Amino acid sequence: xxxxxxxxxxxxxxxxxxxxxxxxxxxxxxxxxxxxxxxxxxxxxxxxxxxxxxxxxxxxxxxxxxxxxxxxxxxxxxxxxxxxxxxxxxxxxxxxxxxxxxxxxxxxxxxxxxxxxxxxxxxxxxxxxxxxxxxxxxxxxxxxxxxxxxxxxxxxxxxxxxxxxxxxxxxxxxxxxxxxxxxxxxxxxxxxxxxxxxxxxxxxxxxxxxxxxxxxxxxxxxxxxxxxxxxxxxxxxxxxxxxxxxxxxxxxxxxxxxxxxxxxxxxxxxxxxxxxxxxxxxxxxxxxxxxxxxxxxxxxxxxxxxxxxxxxxxxxxxxxxxxxxxxxxxxxxxxxxxxxxxxxxxxxxxxxxxx
Length: 355
Fold this sequence. Notes:
- This protein has helices at residues 16-28, 46-59, 66-86, 117-127, 139-147, 167-172, 184-197, 229-232, 236-249, 271-279, 287-294, 307-314, 326-330; strands at 34-40, 91-98, 106-113, 156-159, 177-181, 201-205, 220-225, 250-263, 284-285, 299-306, 345-354.
- By secondary structure, the chain is of the alpha/beta class.
- Strands 4, 5, 6, 7, 8, 9, 10 and 11 form an eight-stranded mixed sheet that branches. A three-stranded antiparallel sheet has the order 1-2-3.
- Strand 2 and strand 3 form a beta hairpin.
- Helix 9 runs parallel beside helix 11.
- It is elongated and about 115 Å long.
- 35% of the residues are buried.
- The model has no long low-confidence stretch (mean pLDDT 95).
């Protein structure tokens, strides 16, 4: 009868460096953590968000398996798309907490905080020092209005008037001026300023594209949207509806003036750039898209000018720049981490005359 083979003696690890490396992950399991992270709802960023979260969880000793990573990505992707569709100001919120031993995992819950444009500007009013948008009216607005006739004969509609950076100075100069503001907090600030100065300005609170908003028709020689399309319009259809609505409100020969971020020739923004541009308050439009928005409508385009260059040239020296953030924003550096003037987009003044 053969003797049983001798049991092999297990090789024990004695290398101090190796042992130290093996110890550290175990202490991670003893980590207790509770937290909350929110990201802008940018669906194209889902892989980046997954990487950020799994890196954070791994630092707590909670390493996700491939299946857990896939499940996390599926949940994030669904909620990012839902939030982005609801609002460019929406945030995806991930609340997490480590689970107590012996469970080695981490529990998390994903939700959407669907902020509106009104919410955003209410926060501005509550947390920022005025003036929120600068102290001087846009040079393009004042110069164009002067070309259209005497003040008393040149009614102006300021759409997205904010706290009145253009509305108030134009009304003081004698232009019959009305204002539209969708954000209640800004509309309230503007109404108080109008009342304090006893100016004859009608402030319409609501969406200028809403046909039920009782704005006088065929009254205005100039409709202005300064930094409105450039901040908040998401789709070409909105620009089209703006053009159609303006036809109702402009007097014959009146001008629609708005600023918008335009892709430079040779640049075709992809889905990632378009999504981030919308959540960064500088949505991109191509010239082809803008041409399609006005196609078949009785308008002639009369000007297409770089906002930064125009305002720099014609604003008084003490009014330049209008705000601390204006230069980088208007030249596209809020969207692209590139030196001013290198981004493939810029804000431009476009003006169209009603035939």
